[in-house]
Sequence to fold (297 residues):
Amino acid sequence: MADTLQHNEWSGKTDGQPWMQRSLIAMFRVLPLWLLYGVMALVVPFYMVFNKKGYQAIYRFFHGRMGYGPLKSFCNVYLNHYRFGQVVLDRFGAYAGKKYQFECADLGLMERLENLPEGFLMLSSHVGCYEMAGYSLSPKIKKMSALVFGGETATVMENRKRVLGKNNIRMIPVKEDLSHLFALNAALDAGEIVSMPADRVFGSQKSVECQFFGAKARFPLGAFAMAVQKEVSVLAVFVMKEGMRKYKGYIREIGCDGQGGRREQMARLAQCFATELEDIVRHYPTQWFNYFDFWKE
Fold:
């Protein structure tokens, strides 16, 4: 296990000033989704030019990790940026009240855990658009506390809070004083659901090395440490874009056999998550939205 993990190259913040984001929400109330997608298709090449680091990182992913040739890698870089633009637009469309179709064949796993007295963890990642599940689904029995990046604009945070609140989900922003960890632990102790990302961190936190796309990559340790220490069940959840207004959810239960020390259990649990993440990325390579060198030492 490594001590720290830093990804300073990628802030994770939604682009645009608050007034621009409010204007986009207003546009969604009068313009069709296909028209905004069309505008996005024209904007993407300019974004690629000015986002040089992100372009290079995702090109290396397609060329080096997926094994694509130069031309196919370039085409997939464009498709990846375009798909990312689409899911961002879909988020703002949800803020404006647009409805999206969401289907998931694995909901039985979540429903089974909801009927148990213990809390459990739902781990997300920066593939597809996990946030869209929160706008389409709601826990039926337990409350959910979702850890979110706290550096977004007030426009994004307020709209997230409004829409997620209707679905029995409360946001817990990441804070420098680590007070969010106390809130997450309290939620698990109360038998609730805790949702948190498990593939990327902001700032400096402990990490664990996992085999990922044929090489060692570092994953944040926090979610896996919490799961082992609290002895709770863990679900890996991926929400992938399938069409203009369609998303598909995948839920996988992950765990370790409980053998060995806690740090060893954390490492095995992290590897289980990394394996599931690699599988979903291989099926949806253009929905991998980590625009930095994920394997950088």
